Amino acid sequence: MSNSAPVRAAGEVLTHRQTLTVMVGLMLGMFLSSLDQTIVSTSIYTIANDLDGLSLQAWATTAYLITSTVSTPLYGKLSDIFGRRPLYLAAILIFLAGSLYAGSVHSMTELAIARGVQGLGAGGLLALALTIIGDIVALKDRAKYQGYFMSVFGISSVLGPVIGGAFAGASNILGFDGWRWVFFINLPIGLAALVVVFLFLHLPARHVKQKIDYWGAAAITLAIVPLLLVAEQGRVWGWTSGGSWLCYGLGVLGIVAFLFAEKRAGDYALIPLRLFKNATFGLSSLLNFIIGIGMFGAIAMLPMYLQLVKGLTPTEAGLMMITFTVGILFGSITAGRTISSSGVYRVFPILGTFTLAAAAVVMGLVLGVDTGLWAPGLIAVFFGVGLGFCMQPLTLAMQVSVPPKDMGVGTSTAAFFRSMGGAVGTAVFISMLFSLAADKIADGMKTASSSPDYQIVLKDPAVAADPANAKLFDFFKNGANNDSLNDTSWLHAANSTLTRPITEGFAQAIDTVMLTAAGLMVIAFLISFALPNKKLTDPKSAAKESVAAH
Questions:
Q1: DSSP label at 278?
Q2: What does pTM read for this prediction?
Q3: Among 22, 174, 457, 541, which is most buried by a count of CB atoms within 10 Å?
Q4: HEC profile for 12-28?
């Protein structure tokens, strides 16, 4: 047999064609999990109104976020014990069951449960896809392949709001409410992924005799669930309310219990603490967390600016974010190909965090009410390039900094920290936006009320009689607060002179949030210099060479 032939033995090596076929199935799975993080954002108001549960709408998002984040490290550990293929197939089936249930619900409570089931499946789709590529592709090619995966992740994150808005805007598709297709669309894609993975992914069976870290799983759930709850709900409850303090306390207790459980569990821990002794693994985990905050902050803030300040529809705002996807594609593929050919990776997180910091500063200083649409479009390209330079090299660094037996843990830990960062970033930045906007709008309205031109329009009987301005005058009566800012659907239909202080207030609040994000990215930039300056080497190849030498 020639050396170029595939090895069909315990350490199975697939041909290029087989690898590409498996990649299609894995990419479809990843597309689903990241699409569903954002697809509900533009359709949730339509769904909540239809199900008479507007006050419960946040739980549909929170449930998905909690279960997908908590289950990610569990999938990584269990796949190291029982093998990747059965866990990945199980993740797709759980996700499909959740999607079918979510599209058939009749109340918001049911939808929250269904989204929780979806999240349980999604936790395995992203982490295990990257782990399987680590199993079947040599390091010299892995960076290139994983670059394509990160591009899919970016594309689906941005397409989510566009697709969600389009489905929610349709009253009926094939006999079902339009919004139900937000969930039903997953079924054909998920089934295709299931068939491809089932037929073509054949990894060696793995049954490592090892205890399962149930205490660690329970502790990490206790840590994450209350902290995500307060991050999502804190603005509504009040950051110093009894419910918020209870969540803070439970979260801290969970973190302490998790560290204790992991130390006690040793090698069979969910996330073995010994892995953090490796500088590359520890620093990459921290960077993934901070970059996750910045990534989802940007994905949340740019559409907010386009809708609240510039008056675009959710679908138009989503289409504008295609430039973000172009940036991620360029960044991920460039980084992947360069790392594949040279093995050098450290330069990319440094360049990436610098680009993210610069893009956030420019966004914080430039975007205003009268800024042309070309500006956010261009800024989004640089955001995408920065993320493409960071996400994929850091995942790769974490994979090769752990022994081959911990590959699943290494990859899922990268996804876990990025997901946690994303959850925190989205919740905190949106809370910051509305808290700051309330103050800035109030100040803007005080200043405007002293302007004679503003007063002339305000006292014009024709303006007061226009039905399009009815909600604006209600807003003037109630003042700028969290309740009155919950519904801004009237903002761009009302008189533009009178709404100017409101759109300016939102623009200023978004600028402040982005400058805060820039500060975080500067911290990430400084941390990235601490990454070890060495070439990535494949631990599996090193192990084989060591065995051959002996």
A1: S
A2: 0.78
A3: 22
A4: CCCCHHHHHHHHHHHHH
* DSSP string of 104-132, one letter each residue: T-SSHHHHHHHHHHHHHHHHHHHHHHHHH
User: Are 314 and 165 contacting, i.e. CB atoms less than 8 angstroms apart?
Assistant: yes
Gap between the Cα atoms of 125 and 32, Å rounded: 8
Tokens 């693994």 map to which residue?
281
With a CB cutoff of 8 Å and minimum separation 6, the contacts of 153 are: 30, 34, 126, 328, 391
Element holding 173 (H helix, E strand):
strand 172-173
Centroid of chain to Cα 480 = 30
HEC string for 287-304: HHHHHHHHHHHHHHHHHH
* Unique residue bearing structure tokens 């490592």: 208
The Cα 384–Cα 390 span in angstroms is 10
Is residue 143 within 8 A of residue 337, CB to CB? The reply is yes
CB 85 within 8 A of CB 203: yes
**DSSP for 489-507?**
TTTTTS-HHHHHHHHHHHH
CB 139 within 8 A of CB 114: no
pLDDT at 358: 94
Count helices and strands (H / E) in the chain.
21, 2
Distance CA 124, CA 413 (A): 12
Please give the Cα distance from 182 to 99 (Å, whole number).
9
Q: Which two tokens stand for residue 220?
A: 């990490």
Reported confidence tier of residue 210, pLDDT bands at 50, 70, 90? low
Q: State residue 525's pLDDT score.
A: 94
> 483: burial class by Cβ within 10 Å (0-12, 13-18, 19+)?
exposed
Cβ atoms of 473 and 498 within 8 Å: the answer is no
Q: From CA 371, how far away is CA 234, in angstroms rounded?
A: 32
Q: Tokens 């699409």 label which residue?
A: 35
Q: What is the pLDDT of residue 136?
A: 80
DSSP per-residue letters across 414-455:
HHHHHHHHHHHHHHHHHHHHHHHHHHHHHHHHHHHHT-HHHH
Over residues 199-216, mean pLDDT: 71
Backbone angles phi, psi at 172, to 5 degrees: -150, 130
The string of pLDDT tens digits covering residues 76-99 is 888 888 888 889 999 999 999 999
Q: Which residues pair with 177 in a beta bridge?
A: 172
As to burial, measured by CB atoms within 10 angstroms (0-12 exposed, 13-18 middle, 19+ buried), residue 99 is: buried
**Neighbouring residues of 114: CB distance < 8 A, sequence distance ≥ 6:** 98, 99, 101, 102, 105, 183
Query: How many residues can be counted in the chain?
Result: 550
What three-state secondary structure class fits 310? Answer: coil
Collapse the DSSP code of 50 into the 3-class scheme (helix H, G, I; strand E, B; otherwise coil) and give the result. Answer: helix
Q: How far apart are CA 271 and CA 216, in angstroms?
A: 8
Question: What is 244-273 written as a DSSP string?
Answer: HHHHHHHHHHHHHHHHHHHHHHGGGSSS-G
How far is the C-alpha of 531 from the C-alpha of 198, rounded, in Å?
Answer: 38
> Would you state the structure tokens that stand for residue 287, as one six-digit string?
């960077």
- 465: CB partners within 8 A, 6+ apart: none
**Separation of alpha carbons 394 and 535, rounded Å:** 13
